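In response to the reviewer comment on reproducibility (Comment 2.3), we provide here a single inverse folding case reported in full, input and output, so that an independent group could reproduce the run without further information from us. The structure tokens appear first.
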């Protein structure tokens, strides 16, 4: 009997993380999806998974705080080791001009987007599946954005944190590679999710992204989830330390 792959999706009950959790479970994985506050979203995911006979469990654990990080690590160590894929979809941030931002805003943004990711990967190191000649090692996938490379108003802190996340992931790829563990980045373009309900000028920005897209539309959450599923699979065994952009061609225009 083939054992199911164990997968952790951090920030896995809403938006892109939810789509990833569902897609990985559809591929046959046992998925643990953590969340912070929105219990209704977690319950909705659990109901959907139960109805589709998908192996998805949820756990409330705020990885930006020591207690939440410890709870998540303990659960993975007890029930999801060896861990075959770690998807870091958690993200937050303060959307302000840098001239209006302060050190508290900086710490809040970097705590979740960078530091918690660093601490989680280090702590889960012993649980990550090691590769061999007959079996692939674990795959780490972190979510970035175009703001890691380009600048836009009010995105300075988040963009800087994503740039740090990308650099950290590349260095993880270098250090973990000898164990057969890969680390890659996905950088979706603008995808219409619930987060846009609280972002400034959302309607205009979404329309501008549609107009810039070579495909004339926004990328869907399903399309992003398919790329993550690919990176978490043996089919991508030769991809390590890379950033895969999923933006529908918006980045190729002048």
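Designed residues, in position order:
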């Amino acid at each position: 009997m083939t054992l199911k792959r164990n997968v952790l999706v951090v920030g896995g009950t809403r938006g892109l993380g939810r789509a990833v959790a569902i897609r990985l479970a559809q591929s046959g994985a046992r998925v643990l999806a953590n969340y912070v506050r929105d219990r209704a979203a977690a319950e909705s995911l659990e109901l959907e998974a139960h109805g589709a006979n998908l192996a998805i469990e949820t756990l409330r654990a705020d990885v930006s705080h020591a207690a939440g990080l410890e709870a998540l690590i303990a659960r993975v160590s007890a029930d999801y080791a060896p861990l075959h894929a770690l998807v870091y979809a958690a993200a937050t941030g303060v959307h302000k001009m840098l001239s209006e931002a302060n050190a508290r805003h900086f710490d809040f943004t970097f705590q979740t987007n960078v530091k918690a990711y660093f601490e989680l990967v280090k702590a889960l190191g012993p649980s990550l599946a090691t590769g061999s000649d007959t079996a692939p090692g674990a795959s780490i996938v972190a979510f970035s954005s175009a703001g890691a490379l380009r600048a836009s108003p009010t995105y300075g802190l988040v963009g800087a944190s994503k740039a740090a996340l990308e650099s950290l992931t590349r260095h993880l790829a270098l250090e973990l590679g000898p164990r057969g563990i890969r680390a890659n980045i996905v950088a979706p373009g603008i995808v219409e999710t619930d987060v846009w309900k609280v972002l400034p000028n959302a309607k205009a920005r979404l329309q501008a992204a549609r107009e810039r897209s070579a495909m004339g539309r926004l990328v869907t959450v399903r399309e992003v989830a398919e790329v993550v599923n690919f990176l978490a699979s043996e089919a991508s065994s030769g991809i390590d330390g890379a950033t895969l952009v999923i933006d529908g061609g918006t980045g190729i225009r002048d």
